[in-house]
Amino acid sequence: MQRSPSCALSALSAGAVIVPPYSSFLTKLVTKNILQRVFRHTYADMLVMEKELRESDMNWTVIRAPWLRGARHTGRYRAIINSYLHNPSRISRADLADYIVNHLTDENTFKPE
What we know:
Number of strands: 4
Helix content: 25-40%
Order of helices and strands: EHHEEEH
Shape: globular
Radius of gyration: 15 Å
Mean pLDDT: 87
């Protein structure tokens, strides 16, 4: 069955559910010992969601956002596909919404075949 490129699910996850192997000592320390402990149930649910999506036939994109801020929309943000950002920091909720809306039909962000 051919998937339609015009429809996809964008799911929001957390940047800290997984610690990239090249992360700094401080990032690993804070993420593993604070964030992943405090949000263990939420992050566990996010990992289950990501697993279910990987095993599905639908078009999907998981967006692992860093720390969300209440700042203004700038239209400037960094994204990387099928890897991890080096030195992720913060993004405004408005810029995250901008990214999501502008990539709903971007087949380059859909799961790999």
